[in-house]
Amino acid sequence: MATIKRPIKVYNGSSWDEIFPATSDDMIEGLARHTGFKRTTDLINAPSGNALQWQSQTGDTNLIKWSSSKPEEFTVMKDGYYLIVCRHSMRHATGGYATLQLREYSGSEKVVDDIVVNMGVINGIAHLQFMFLVQLKAGNKLRFTTYWSGSYTAFMTTGSKAEFLRIGE
Question: How far apart are CA 103 and CA 100, in angstroms?
């Protein structure tokens, strides 16, 4: 719930002046915060465990912690409901079935959400994308993994991205 601010009225000797206090983003509760991750170069070979690996972060870095030394790993920094969109783009030689999963591996590993589709290839690129709402807790460790039944020439292209939008407690 946002804090409602009313103008401060000051009598100047002949009339009332109204002063409106400034409001910054951090003063408003429940304001949607965003952070995103993307590839800046193609990743040719699939890493161990088929985990998607990211190269840069944009937006609010206080929501999700990402380290370039562990490019597949996210650590949740703030509790809340998150709208998550992930697009995995691959360059292929053949099409096939694909799975894209968000996995939590704090303690024992479990699937948070996933999608399985029969993908085709358009102009040599296949995009697998999903969007869902999930409640995350500070300290959760997450990663996206994918499995592809066809062959590919680049495991992840620069079209790959992940977006986290925190929409409330």
Answer: 10
